[in-house]
């Protein structure tokens, strides 16, 4: 079963309209362009708008920020900047908890600013954010309208509305960007997955032109869009990996890319949501020391920051049945000691209290230990398998096959299963490690990685199939065609994504 609640769109429902791709916008902890901060821009966004008073913006977004503990926490969807005193933006403010914001400054003062009370901070969900500007409207409160997942946001923490027929800088100014606020060299950068991004100049469409409620589940889902984009509108579908800023609206307003290339194309979308590491699961080290590991690359890369402590990253999707596959690896030689495996949900709750990790001596969860330090290469805790030890480091990719139906886990190194493991062996569990049951467990398993900070900064990469920072040469998928892995999942094992969960989980 899928462990996550289904109150928001996690791609877990069938739809007649599939979104194939998203773009992963990376943020790596600083606010200066050119340091791995991903955004798109046009600093000469010229042309006469169809309207300076009317338009709308629509995008699906899966947030990878946790808020202020992982940086300033702002995800700027679109921004048009003239100066710090004259600018307009539509964004999610995770630094304040996850508000949806549409604001505009004129001569240093807020000309309008509308901020939701509701906080949209589920890092496992693809939200649909929709904003309308219609300053020609005679009703003040109708001039700026915000919607999330098809519902109008009426509870607002800030509501300053524009005067009638106020010019909207979001369309009229010439320094435009997607994924960044402020100027071309400094700003608040987005971290997450954007899909189906539409900017409309001249028409205040309804959210129902971009999505619809599923008649069975009531969940808001995307649909095929047919709108008029106006003179300065655009549509990014992120299908062209060679040019993720390609405008397919017909206006050919392609955006210039900054720290975005073909590797940023993802298949983690609102219609097929893949697991990533859970940025909210930051267990504390022993003695109450807070683990503020840095999650980047769409929450597929975790960097340690507590010297002399174990830290861990855990999937945001858990499993109780089915057969699942993922890959992970150390990032570089500075990762001296690490483990790759899984955590039982009940066990994970104690990792922070005990300075534990997947494979710790007191753990009910197993991990394959490796890194550049000597003395590793076996599955912990205390299995003495494989024998002799099979070591790995940053040059290797570790595959993990979890058979939740029969209660066994198998590990591979560069495609070859260690301990003579046979993931197809079913109930016999040949070469697999049996999943513990009983006290201290509850049977809900989460793929996980752990590492020890031993004087040099440890970093781990994971690949659940929807996006990875790995260099992939073979692009293998599961039998359903989902996921992009270096090595093919074993027969009967699948990528951990919502389309597969609906069928096998």
Topology:
Blueprint: E1 22-25, E2 39-42, E3 54-63, E4 74-83, E5 86-93, E6 99-106, E7 109-116, E8 126-134, E9 144-148, E10 151-152, E11 156-160, H1 169-172, E12 176-178, E13 192-201, E14 211-213, E15 220-222, E16 234-236, E17 256-258, E18 265-266, E19 294-296, E20 301-303, E21 310-314, E22 323-330, E23 337-344, H2 345-354, E24 367-370, E25 379-380, E26 398-403, E27 408-413, E28 416-417, E29 433-434, E30 445-452, E31 459-463, E32 494-495, H3 498-504
Parallel strand pairs: 22-32
Antiparallel strand pairs: 1-13, 1-18, 2-12, 2-17, 3-8, 3-13, 4-5, 4-12, 5-6, 6-7, 7-11, 8-9, 9-10, 13-16, 14-15, 19-20, 20-31, 21-30, 22-26, 22-31, 23-24, 23-30, 24-25, 26-27, 27-28, 27-29
Written description of the protein model:
The protein is mostly beta strands and 505 residues long. The chain has three helices and 32 strands. 4% of the residues lie in helices and 32% in strands. A hairpin with a 2-residue loop joins strand 9 (144-148) and strand 10. The protein is elongated, with a radius of gyration of 23 Å.
In short:
The chain has 505 residues and is mainly beta. The chain has 3 helices and 32 strands.
Q: Quick one: how many beta strands?
A: 32
Q: Catalogue the unreliable spans.
A: 1-7, 68-72
Percent of residues in helices comes to under 10%
- Structural category is mainly beta
Keywords:
mainly beta, 9-stranded mixed β-sheet, 8-stranded antiparallel β-sheet, 3 helices, disordered N terminus
